[in-house]
Amino acid sequence: MVVSAFLMAGVLAEPLVxxxxxxxxxxxxxxxxxxxxxxxxxxVPDVMTTVNTGEGVVEWASDVDGFRVGENGRVDGKYAVLxxxxxxxxxxxxxxxxxxxxxxxTRLSRSxxxxxxxxxxxxxxxxxxxxxxxxxxxxxxxxxxxxxxxLYLGNDAIDFRREIVPxxxxxxxxxxxxxxxxxxxxxxxxxxxxxxxxxxxxSHLYVLGRNRLQHVRMxxxxxxxxxxxxxxxxxxxxxxWSNTASICNEIAxxxxxxxxxxxxxxxxxxxxxxPRILDQYLEGFAIDSSTVDIDQPNRLLARELRxxxxxxxxxxEPFRRATQAGESLYGAVDPHLSAAGHELLExxxxxxxxxxxxx
Length: 359
Known about the structure:
Shape: globular
Order of helices and strands: HEEEEEEHHEHEHHHHEHHHEHH
Distance between the termini: 75 Å
Radius of gyration: 22 Å
Strand order of the largest sheet: 7-6-8-9-10
Structural class: alpha/beta
Helix content: 40-55%
Number of helices: 13
Number of strands: 10
Strand content: 5-15%
């Protein structure tokens, strides 16, 4: 009776949670991402589908090069801007037309009377060394007039460098089976893992329950959320700042040989913008606030980039002002940029991009 009551409660609660408080389900989409022998993983070309990261159903389409495009496909213009980045540029949370790349393409083409095509080459999970590899591929294969590189300060300051990224295979899915013994590891692998794998891609109620235990899971090291080590004062002398800037300098040098300007954009993490998110992060990981400097990534990386005479735009302060004014720049369920965040970022970049196009 108890088991039946729990099952019935779950069946009734699931649609309620989906309607009132939807969650971010785990995405396993081999139709969108594929292993890549150089980049590790990339987008599948010529895709037309939908995706939902918790912020609602979004149309997803890619062109022959794997760049994200709108429902009407690829737009070719007089000027081509290559936009590189990770999941903040990939932007699965909002429709293409409302992403920073889609807005730039539309507004530069209409308002400023520039026929511009923005090639959105952002891929979730990529790092600056992958931006470098991808920029070489694209610049060598098609005409580009400007390269726009976004650096997400939550994880893009890296202390490593890869010439070839190991192929990332699809995540293993555990299948329910009879346990071979009563050992803890065997019970977890045979029963608990398969149940988790089934529910985390389907049940908003299950994900809500996990998120409610987020602080406990963070303390136990069981949370998917990682510490943002770039915020730690102990990282001030790390090689991550100079290493990332050196990779960016190689992007600029390769583009410069083709007479292409490069603009680097520093995109802040939500912890740097919203004090409430920062407080939750510090409490969850039991971090002493005195050991954290939320301005450190912008200050140190910008200094390294500018010392190499690279063109940099930092949008941290405009993002903070907008948040203080009540704007929600990051998703309520998915922590990536919301439509309002993309809108503000585009406003910060529009004139800078137009000024750097070779007219």
